[in-house]
Amino acid sequence: MSALPTDSLCEPTNPAEPTEPSKPIKDDMSQHSADPAPAATTSALATVARHRDWWRDAVIYQVYPRSFADSDGDGMGDLEGVRSRLPYLRDLGVDAVWLSPFYASPQADAGYDVADYRAVDPMFGSLLDADALIRDAHELGIRVIVDLVPNHSSDQHEWFKRALREGPGSPLRDRYHFRPGKGENGELPPNDWESIFGGPAWTRVTERDGTPGDWYLHLFAPEQPDFNWDHPAVGDEFRSILRFWLDMGVDGFRVDVAHGLVKAPGLPDLGDHEQLKLLGNDVVPFFDQDGVHEIYRQWRTVLDEYAKREAPEGPSSEARWWETGGRIFVAEAWTPTVERSANYVRPDELHQAFNFEYLTTHWHAAELRAVVDRTLEAMRPVGAPATWVLSNHDVTRHTTRFGNPAGLGTQIRLAGDRELGLRRARAATLLMLALPGSAYIYQGEELGLPEVVDLPDEVRQDPAYFRGAGQDGFRDGCRVPIPWTRTGPSYGFGDGGSWLPQPREWGELSVEAQTGVTGSTLELYRSALAVRHEHPDLGAGDSVTWLEAPEGVLAFRRGEFVCTANTNGTAVRIPGYGRVLVSSTEVVVTDGEFELPADTTVWWAG
Ligand code: GLC
């Protein structure tokens, strides 16, 4: 019998002493030099980032710029802050970052209300900063995906401002959905649609002469008027925006509300159909309309022009490796079924779609197995990789979801059982990273951060909160700036405060507190990602082979690997499957038999 404590399974992957930052911005230990990547990272480049279809099994890290790192001490994260932390992301072992919006915006919805798609908001920096960030990321072997928000603009976008200014009859109004109201004096909204954030999806404008005028559609906040995608200028503009960012060197786009761009002709009433709750999934006249796919076919041709560019030859090709791979779109498309999601990733459309069905699945073996099977079956015919995601900036962090009773959904206000939540979250992550396809990590989950459930109302900024969207309004709790150091102002987030208050205990969850600590959540993520890089087979392919397992346990083979996940609250005896590669809790391996602890995932090499 040999005892293998977790300690030996989660060795820090990059235990080397940190070196000086290339451009000192902060002085904590998570900074590393931007010098050539260490051996582990170089091999990662070779195996994943360099190959043309890098995105099929990529691990993509979501950076929420306002909450990642603040370089100028104003309490708000920025692009220079992100750039300063790229070495951390390299050492974590991610293949790409997805940056939530950093464009010019009045921030009515944290930047998802874009006033100028080709400019960086001064709060986040400048286009030069974006350029430096993209360049540095590439130097370190990290691809960059930016957010594209095509369903709506800000009400401060030039088109919308002019549409209002020029009044009824202005051709600019045709680029949005302006309609006369119903009722004797047009005092009622044109139809019965509700905003996702609560209240009617229509706002009436006051014309320049002070009289009440037409109404405009906004599926989200009133500051986010929906574009009319039937108007050719909208399509032209977005294809041009794509080119702008592709010319800046980005590797892809996350498409915000990808299912919402096209509305049913005539904007019909929902009638007594139950109104949609936050991006829910139901058949409604404003989501998942078939017409949306023509837009993506057009976008795909633009992207492919860039993807097909010849790889540069000669010595510079080493330095410009990122030009050799395809560029991608990932769809945020909430659809009624995973089969409908598959429509977005047909070969001539987008590349990936977030798997929200997986995100909303409980920590329950049978449910998880069913969704894994359904996902793989739905993606296989269209040839797209499956994706897996547990958290993002719109939902309660999964550490907290899993610490609460199942069935509470993705918007939870209760802290729940923290220890249980973290234990399950770690197990869920290892399970996710063993599945074929691409996985998304939301900043801070690698630290095991919980949702901040007790933010005082006066600091909240989520527009859904102010519009009383009922079950929503809690998105600020997953957006609290992440802790880098044990102590110091805003725990190393910046030299000033942070735009949302951080819980006092977050110092002990910081990058500094967890780096090099065997068994810490950060080192667990690092170990798992290092194993994925060393064994590219782990994320490849489109199937898993299920193995027989006791109730509440998932066991599947992926080539030479076996993954076993116990979703039960008690330990379960299973056969051993060889050598333990990574384990989410401490495990003891015996000859021939093995006790898989409660809420634990183990990776094996057979
Ligand atoms: C997406 C974003 C969310 C935003 C909404 C409106 O769902 O993820 O944060 O509020 O779109 O743009």
Key structural traits:
alpha/beta, TIM Barrel, Oligo-1,6-glucosidase, domain 2, Immunoglobulin-like, 3 domains, five-stranded antiparallel β-sheet, 17 helices, 14% strand, globular, binds alpha-D-glucopyranose
Helix/strand layout:
Layout: H1 6-9, H2 39-49, E1 59-63, H3 79-84, H4 86-92, E2 96-99, E3 103-104, E4 116-120, H5 127-139, E5 143-148, H6 158-166, E6 178-179, E7 202-206, E8 212-217, H7 232-247, E9 252-255, H8 292-307, H9 316-319, E10 328-331, H10 338-342, E11 352-353, H11 356-359, H12 365-379, E12 387-389, H13 398-401, H14 418-433, E13 438-442, H15 463-466, H16 511-514, H17 521-534, E14 545-546, E15 553-558, E16 561-566, E17 572-575, E18 579-583, E19 593-596, E20 600-605
Parallel strand pairs: 1-2, 1-13, 2-5, 5-9, 9-10, 10-11, 12-13
Antiparallel strand pairs: 3-4, 6-8, 7-8, 14-15, 15-16, 16-20, 17-19, 18-20
Helix pairs in contact: 7-8, 14-17
Bound molecules: alpha-D-glucopyranose (GLC).
Describe the overall structure.
Helix 7 runs parallel beside helix 8 and helix 14 runs parallel beside helix 17. The chain has 606 residues and is of the alpha/beta class. The strands form five sheets. An eight-stranded parallel sheet has the order 11-10-9-5-2-1-13-12. The chain folds into three domains: 429 residues, TIM Barrel (Alpha-Beta Barrel); 60 residues, Oligo-1,6-glucosidase, Domain 2 (Oligo-1,6-glucosidase, domain 2, Alpha-Beta Complex); 61 residues, Golgi alpha-mannosidase II (Immunoglobulin-like, Sandwich). A hairpin with a 5-residue loop joins strand 7 and strand 8. It contains 17 helices and 20 strands. Alpha-D-glucopyranose binds next to loops.
